[in-house]
Each structure stands twice: as C-alpha cells, then as structure tokens.
Design a protein that fits this description.
Elements: E1 5-14, H1 21-39, E2 43-51, H2 55-63, H3 68-85, E3 92-95, H4 99-114, E4 118-128, E5 133-135, E6 140-144, E7 151-155, E8 161-172, H5 178-187, E9 192-193, H6 195-206, E10 212-213, E11 215-217, E12 226-227, E13 230-235, H7 237-242, H8 244-247, E14 277-281, H9 285-298, E15 307-310, E16 313-315, E17 318-319, H10 330-337, H11 339-349, E18 356-357, H12 360-382, E19 391-392, H13 404-422, H14 426-446, H15 449-452, H16 459-479, H17 485-494, H18 504-507, E20 516-517
Parallel strand pairs: 1-2, 1-14, 2-3, 9-15, 14-15, 16-18
Antiparallel strand pairs: 4-5, 4-8, 6-7, 7-8, 8-10, 11-13, 12-13, 16-17, 19-20
Helix pairs in contact: 2-3, 5-6, 6-9, 10-11, 11-12, 12-14, 12-16, 13-14, 13-16, 14-16, 16-17
This protein binds ligand ME8.
C-alpha cells in the first residue's frame, strides 16, 4: 500500500530532568516508523520536542535556582542534542514556550469555548503534582509514604501522591464524549494499539468520564499560557502540550468554508494533519486516547489515525524513571556501542504489550547478531579473495536447487516485513530479516566459495553463490534502513546500490540484471569488534 503522506509524532518530553533511555526509545520507534513510510514512498514527517510548562517544571526550575525559561532552554537543548545524536530525522522540533505554540493553544481554546464546551466551575478533587492531573475518588487509594511512614493518598493509576484541592477554574465538557469516543474506537479497530491498551481505554470510558478541569489559578501556577481574555487563569498543561501536534502543522489554519487551509508561514509541515501515528508511552495513553480525541471532536477537527502505546523499559525489572534514579544515559550507551546498534536493540527488544528489561549485556548480544550475520556476510562476499573483480554477478540464468530455500525466503521477506511493520510488530519484521540472513550464511558456508574460486570450471557456481550472498545483503540493507539508517547507507553504498534504488519496492525480487560494479569504498568494517 502506498501512502502519500505520513505524519508521525513522539511525545514532547518534560524538561524537568535530562533525557534517559526511555525517551530515546519513544523517539527511535517514531523515527523508525517515519523512515518506514518514507521507504514506501510517502512524504513522511516527524515531530518531536519539549513540554515546558506546568507546576513540575516551575518547581524544578526553582530547585535549580534558575528562572524557568533559562532552565527550560538548558534542558530542552539536551533533548534536541539527543535527537540529533540518535539520527532522529525530525521535521520539526517544537518547544511549548515558543510564541507560535501559545498562538495555537489560545486558538484551540477559543474554538472550544465558541463551540460551547468550556464553562467555569468549582473544581475539587485529588490532585497529583507529578502527573499534573486531578483524579476522582475512585481513582485514588491509601498508601504509606516510604520515606516518612506517613499515611498518604496516591493515584491507583500512576502511584503518585495526591492532595485534596479545591479551586475555581474552567472545565471542559468531557462527559459529553463518552459515546462518541466509544464509537470512534469501535469504528477504528487500530486507533489504539496494542489491544491491551485499547481495552484499558474502553474500560475507563465505560466507567464514566467526568468533566475535565482545564485551567489553574494563575496565583498557584503562572508558568504556562494564560486563558484568553481571563489572565487570572493558566491553561492546563496537558491541553497546552497536546496542542503541539497542531502547532507543528501551522495551526490555526486560515479556513474557508470547505478548505482546511494553508499552514502559517513558519510551519514546515502543512496539511499533514491528522497524525497517522502518535507514538506514546503507556503512561500517557489516557491523555492521548481520551482527552485529545475529545478536544479534537469538540473543535470539529479530524482525529489522529492511531495512538501507538509502547510499554516501559525496566532496569532490574523496576520501572526506569528519573525519580527512582535507575536510568541509563542514552548518550553514554550510544558512545559505547554506536548509534545504530543501540537503535537496533531498542526496536528489536523493546516491549509493546509488556515491559522489556534493559541491559547492556543484551545490547552486546544484539551487536553480535549484526556483526556475525550481516557484517560478516557482507565482508565475505565483497572480499577481494572471493570477489576479485569487485562486482555483483549477473542474475543467474539457471537456478540451482541448492539455492531454493534462500530464494524463497528472499522473495517472501519484503512482504512479511511490510506486514509486520504495518501491524507494528517491529521485532517480528526484523526477526524475519535475520531468519533470511541465517539461511544466506548457511548457503554461503555450505557452498564453500573459497574452494570454488580455485577451480576455473566452477566460475558459474561461484558467481551464483556470490550473487545470492550479495542479494541477501542488499535486501537486508534496504529493509533495515528505518532502524539502522547510517549503517545501512554504508552497506548499500558499498554494494554500489544507487540512492534511488533503495525503496521497499526495490527489496522485492528484481528483473534480471547484468553484472554491476560494487561501490568503491570497502572500508571500514561495518560492525567492528567491540572493545572489552
Ligand atoms: O509525559 N520506558 O513527558 P515525559 C519507555 N510531557 N519509555 C519511557 C520511559 C521508560 N522507562 N520513561 C519515559 C510526558 N518514557 C509529557 C508528554 S505529549 C503531548 C506530553 C517515554 O518526559 C514514554 O514515551 O514524562 C513516555 O510516555 C514519555 O517518555 C514521557 O515523557
């Protein structure tokens, strides 16, 4: 299936602390998806950025004795550096402190108000500062503070401490959207993936949706966007944050009767809304799968096509989190193992339905797959000793029964890969590539090209063997580009594959080809041995 455009998003990250491997994971999944759609010929867009308003940030800045904006500048920069370091090919990096964003949020607010979904009311409830969320009485429970032994109340969902809070603020008529949301989920079976998350969301909605408080008193929280025409109130940070997905599209659009309109001048992404995939962690599903579609429905804007929620990385089976302090530094890990091997590890072993346990031992194991199955095969079939003319032999005229299994796997692989990625089973798609590579290595080994090369009468067979090994590397190289963009670029360049012959379609068996030269540069080794 050809997609003409694909718009993928990452969550925008809180700047209350520096990035860890969990943030890198969300970004790598989103980037892999974006590159996958580009591989299929789509104009693919990716946006990422930082979420900079709210009490949590205000408090973190105070703790660091910095004015909030300076504190935000500093931490936001480290998230941007992480994206750049990890080869995240974002089209737009948004910061919620940018003027273009304040304009979009105010416009959405005004729209919701105009359509009658905002009213002023007294709000009371259990408020969790860490989650920036109010919870109803059936969403909290008693617990004991680990440090002080004091009895406290916590959210059953997030485990965070909550306090009873009363204030006058603005509310959004979320309760009006129970039926429409259930219908949306019903009509769009892949709107929330995977299914355990979808079931959870359906349950939450069926338990009943209370109207949502969407402002805070400015006296209690001034680090945020003011409510239009009522500056004594600050817009709730989640309404602010979610709107980022519209801001990067140039919202507010200048609309006419039947036209969604052009984006504002500064936007690099125009008319890409609705998002194809919002990649999020399972901790923020409620916000993306309930609040966000409800806001959009209220504003009569199109809904995102999919919320893809991944599970968490644990370390030693405990959730990795800034507050717990058991986090892996993504910069350090990429320095040690290289960017692409870390991306590969995260995509292949990360959990969707269930959490995955992070360990460097497993990164090393995956690195060895790459070096042993792919790097090694590439080296062998392009080595001057076996391939002295440095060419890709012509497509074999006669097929040999000894290559049958490999030929079948090669022919089936692109379809399996595509299907797996469409259904967001990334590990399955990648495993299929390595299953093919295992067969390719076996074929190479069994046919002993190092003997064939010594016997001129075996030239045709040698060519067939080299051809199949190179073809296996070429197909693997094309398919793995979304996951290992830089390494696969090196591989394909080494094979002399021109940049316009690297799309998903090019991974399917090709028409007969005559002999072509390999690329010139055969150094350095694709996956060098890791230093102890
Ligand atoms: O929630 N494993 O920002 P945040 C996997 N600003 N992923 C993890 C993770 C872990 N251990 N820890 C964090 C926010 N993440 C809001 C989002 S969007 C409009 C606003 C990932 O900095 C995961 O995707 O707390 C999670 O949802 C995201 O980081 C939250 O990052």
């Amino acid at each position: 299936m050809k997609h003409s455009t694909a718009f993928i998003t990452t969550p925008i990250y809180y700047v209350n602390a520096v990035p860890h491997i969990g943030h890198l994971y969300s970004s790598v999944i989103a980037d892999t998806l974006k590159r996958y759609y580009a591989l299929k010929g789509a104009d693919a867009y990716l946006c990422t950025g930082t979420d900079e308003h709210g009490l949590k940030i205000q408090q973190a800045a105070a703790k660091n004795n910095a004015p909030p904006i300076e504190f935000c500048n500093q931490v936001s920069k480290s998230f941007k550096e992480l994206s750049d370091a990890a080869d995240i090919s974002y089209t737009s990096f948004i910061r919620t402190t940018e003027p273009r964003h304040a304009k979009a949020v105010a416009a959405l607010w005004t729209e919701l108000e105009k359509k009658g979904y905002i009213y002023k009311g007294k709000h009371e409830g259990w408020y969790a500062v860490s989650d920036e969320a109010f919870y109803a009485s059936n969403q909290v429970q008693e617990a004991v503070d680990e440090k002080t032994g004091e009895k406290i109340m916590v959210s059953t969902e997030s485990g965070q401490r909550v306090e009873w809070t009363e204030e006058e603020n603005y509310k959004f008529k979320l309760s009006a959207f129970e039926e429409p949301l259930l219908k949306w989920i019903d009509d769009n079976p892949t709107a929330i993936v995977p299914s355990n998350r979808k079931n959870e969301v359906t349950q939450w909605i069926k338990q009943g949706l209370a109207d949502l408080s969407i402002s805070r008193l400015r006296s209690r929280l001034d680090w945020g966007i003011p409510v239009p025409n009522d500056p004594g109130h600050t817009i709730y940070v989640w309404l602010d944050a979610l709107t980022n997905y519209l801001t990067v599209n140039g919202y507010p659009w200048i609309t006419t009767e039947n036209n969604k309109g052009e984006g504002t001048q500064n936007s690099k992404i125009t008319n890409a809304w609705p998002a194809d995939v919002h990649v999020v962690g399972k901790d923020i599903v409620r916000f993306h799968a309930i609040y966000w579609p409800a806001f959009l429905m209220a504003a009569q804007l199109p809904l995102p096509k999919q919320i893809l929620a991944h599970a968490h990385w644990t370390m030693g089976k405990q959730k990795m989190s800034k507050s717990r302090g058991n986090v892996a530094d993504p910069f350090q890990v990429m320095n040690t193992y290289g960017v692409d091997p870390v991306r590969y590890y995260l995509v292949r072993d990360g959990g969707f339905a269930d959490d995955g346990d992070y360990s460097e031992e497993n990164i090393i194991k995956r690195y060895k797959d790459l070096a042993g199955q792919l790097g090694n095969l590439l080296n062998r079939c392009t080595a001057p000793s076996l391939n002295p003319n440095a060419t890709i032999p012509a497509t074999p005229k006669n097929s040999d029964a000894r290559d049958e299994t490999l030929r079948t796997k090669l022919a089936e692989l692109p379809g399996i890969f595509d299907e797996s990625f469409e259904s967001r089973e990334f590990g399955k798609g990648i495993s299929a590539v390595f299953d093919m590579l295992a067969e390719a290595n076996k074929n190479f080994q069994d046919n002993k090209p190092w003997d064939l090369v010594k016997d001129p009468s075996q030239k045709e067979r040698l060519d067939q063997v080299i051809y199949h090994a190179i073809e296996s590397c070429r197909v693997a190289g094309i398919l793995l580009q979304p996951v290992l963009p830089s390494k696969m670029n090196t591989l394909l360049t080494r094979l002399g594959v021109p940049s316009e012959k690297r799309s998903l379609l090019d991974a399917y068996p090709q028409q007969e080809q005559s002999e072509t030269p390999l690329g010139e540069n055969r150094e350095p080794v694709l996956f060098p041995r890791l230093k102890k």
